[in-house]
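step: validate -> pass
step: tokenize input -> pass
step: predict -> running
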Amino acid sequence: MSDRATGLPPSRVTAVLGPTNTGKTHLAVERMLGHASGMIGLPLRLLAREIYERIVKQRGAAAVALVTGEEKIIPPRPHYWVCTVEAMPLEREVEFLAIDEIQLAADPERGHVFTSRLLHARGRFETMFLGAATLAPLIRRLIPDVEIVTRERLSSLTYAGSKKLTRLPRRSAIVAFSTDQVYAIAELIRRQRGGAAVVMGSLSPRTRNAQVALFQSGEVDFLVATDAIGMGLNMDVDHVAFAGMRKFDGRRTRWLHAHEIAQIAGRAGRHVRDGTFGVTGEAEELDEDLVQQVVEHRFDPIQAIEWRNARLDFDTLPDLLRSLVQVPDVPGLRLTGQALDETLLRRAMQDDEIK
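step: predict -> pass
step: emit ->
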């Protein structure tokens, strides 16, 4: 499924691009279920669980598998595979394949995996990439035969300014960027507003799922979460409040980019119901130009995405390192930063017993 077999007709490749709340993921699931077999790669474990449960309701538990870094539910003969992007079993051939949030190919940490899927992963008959329109020019350059479909947001998104935590409207999601801040805000809301659900990637699958259900059922009206909710989680949120505008990205603490703010803020509003976003706590008011960018979905196109050589030479350790740091010769691809495996390889090469 990674590359086309000789003699097969080319897989139809479509990129469905647009802002949040355009129904992209829903479209991909419907297209997948129209085929006899399919696989969808998603950016979050929680989102994978949500899509898995949706398909189970339609086709039954025997027809669908869930594969993430935390969970594996694989029936004897599944027709459909719901996975995190890194966990996709690409050795399995399926008629339909989709990758969600493909703009994450530009992410310094995970990007090379999304880039690999963009360049090589294909369904037998149909392949679909979902994500932000900022990647459109680069996708056209890298995949000349791609069909690009642009979708508009189903509802409007407006800026509501700054509000105290105790004055936030019900059905609000408060976004913070540290575990301590998430729990502190949740405790404050529980004391003054009656209850809050907490969603973070570090929670166990069972706890995370229970917290989402708590909010979705209406048992609590407030959700406190990390920026993970920006990656396509479909929740009944009317207002998104940023409790901070700086995050640690794995390398350094930095200000959020405009497109990241839009991705998170766009969780407000569902289908045709309008949404609002703003700031709370110690977060400063957003600049007017930044607000306009978010509301109008105007962002600079992505110029390059992360890449890592997949054809490694295992003859000797120096050969392996040389192939690992090979620089891409295709415009628009950039060599990803040194990962843990490369660091360990370099250390091993300095060990006389391993040499």
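step: describe -> The CA atoms of residues 36 and 74 lie 17 Å apart.
step: cleanup -> pass
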